Amino acid sequence: MMEVRLMHPERDFVPPDEVPRQVHFRDPDAGPRHEPAACEKELWADLELDTLAGAMAGGDAYVFDVARKALLLGPRNDAATILYRQAILRDCLANAGVVRSIYTLVEETVEEKKKYYFGVLTRYPAGILRGAVELMQMLMSRLRRLRGIADAQADRFDSPGMSALFAMLRREFGEDYLNEIEQHLAELRFRGGL
Fold it and tell me: 164: which of 45, 73, 92, 99 is 20 to 30 A away, CA to CA?
């Protein structure tokens, strides 16, 4: 699994399925400063975090949910992590069109993937294989487009986080790697028979 590391410089941010009932507003070495369950709702309301998360999400329910979880878990972050994120945000604001094109590509891919549900719809192994190969072919075309964006736009970004992301995309999805996958997919079509 590829870690994009846009929330933390040393690890990826994986939002939990559910925000913990008790959010620990504490220094890991000092122990809890408050009883978080008692103040969580009040803190959310006092800071109007629904407004902030809503503005961050721009009407996208998934982004709203992730923003909500990130905001509730945010007090665990140190100043260096916040500065790291602010540099990424400056980069994204300066290159909003590129960021939107990446997000749109991901959205399109997720929607297109939903069309390739082949497990229940067929009882025949050949049909399952054909559907899986077609799905992989679609995903490969999207990876090529993503890598193309990274190749064309990486020089426009200065932050360590975005620079590392584009370098990883270029390294992990190099032309040799993508061509090898294309060859495997071609073999899985069994054009010469089994």
Answer: 73
pLDDT tens figures, 43-55 = 777 878 888 888 8
- Cβ neighbors of 107 (< 8 A, separation 6 or more) are none
Q: pTM value?
A: 0.71
Our measurement of the distance from residue 127's CA atom to the centroid of its chain's CA atoms, rounded to an integer in Å, reads 31
**C-alpha Rg value of the chain to the nearest Å:** 21
Using the CB atoms, write b or e for 70-88: b if 16+ within 10 Å: bbbbeeeeeeeeeebbebb
Q: Per 3-state DSSP, what percentage of the chain is helix, strand, and coil (rounded to 5)?
A: 70, 0, 30
Q: What are 147-186's pLDDT values in tens digits?
A: 999 999 999 999 999 999 999 999 999 999 999 999 999 9
User: Do 3 and 11 contact (CB within 8 A), yes or no?
Assistant: yes
**Cα gap 188→131, rounded to integer Å:** 11
Q: What is the pLDDT of residues 95-124, one digit of tens each?
A: 999 999 999 999 999 888 888 765 555 677
> Exposure string (b/e) for 18-29, b if CB count within 10 Å is 16 or more?
ebeeebebeeee
| Beta pairing partners, 14 | none
Question: Which residues fall within 8 angstroms of residue 13, CB to CB, at 6 or more apart?
Answer: 6, 7, 70
Type of residue at 58: G
Which residues share a beta bridge with 27? 31
